[in-house]
């Protein structure tokens, strides 16, 4: 059930993701050490190939590596992925698992990320598309068959279909709040 009386507010100051707009600038990769509030762990049969795809295609970097065991990848603050060595006796799946990991970028980065991934594996990248929740997204399937959704918020346009979709579920800009 949706509570349409909940107050929403601009809280971008606690996020590394900049407010959307034509002048949005992506933050630098974050190399600090912190207690991770959430992260995803993805088993892979080829740590090197998976790490190469995530770094050269999806724009992550290797924060640290435990050879043959784990690669800790990061992009911006709070965008952490742990690639771990899969059990060698487990079968390699041909279909993506139920796992989906979504991470934010800015609009100006989305085409480049999609193109970099296409250069690594042309069949791994879907079409870039707009969503009813005011973002532009592309789906990528990594070598370990994880489904990755790269998402970029679009600038809010009050007269758009996306604005109407958001308003229908009770999400409106702060200045429109009752």
Largest sheet: 4 strands, mixed
Portion of residues in helices? 10-25%
What structural class should be given to the helix and strand makeup? Answer: alpha/beta
Q: Rg from C-alpha positions?
A: 18 Å
Termini separation comes to: 20 Å
Strand content: 15-25%
Provide a count of the helices.
3
Question: Can you describe this structure?
Answer:
The chain is α/β, with parallel strands linked by helices. The chain has three helices and eight strands; from the N terminus they run E-H-E-E-E-E-H-E-E-E-H. The chain has helices at residues 47-56, 107-120, 161-168; strands spanning 40-44, 61-66, 70-74, 80-85, 100-105, 129-130, 135-141, 147-153. The strands form two sheets. The protein has a four-stranded mixed β-sheet, covered by helices on one side. It starts with 39 loop residues before the first strand and ends in a 10-residue tail after the last helix.
């Amino acid at each position: 059930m949706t509570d349409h009386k909940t107050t929403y507010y601009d809280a971008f100051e606690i996020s590394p993701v900049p407010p959307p707009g034509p002048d949005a600038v992506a933050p630098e990769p974050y190399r600090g050490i912190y207690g991770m509030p959430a992260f995803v762990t993805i088993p892979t049969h080829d740590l090197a190939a998976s790490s190469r795809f995530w770094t050269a295609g999806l724009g992550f970097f290797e924060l640290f590596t435990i050879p043959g065991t784990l690669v800790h990848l990061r992009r911006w603050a709070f965008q952490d992925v742990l690639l771990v060595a899969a059990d060698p006796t487990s079968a390699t799946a041909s279909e993506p698992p139920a796992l989906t990991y979504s991470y934010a970028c800015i609009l100006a980065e989305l085409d480049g990320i999609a193109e970099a991934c296409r250069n690594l594996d042309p069949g791994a990248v879907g079409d870039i598309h707009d969503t009813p929740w005011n973002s532009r997204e592309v789906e990528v399937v990594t070598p370990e068959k994880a489904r990755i959704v790269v998402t970029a918020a679009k600038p809010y346009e009050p007269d758009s279909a996306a604005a109407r979709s958001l308003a229908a579920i009770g999400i409106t800009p702060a200045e429109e709040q009752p």
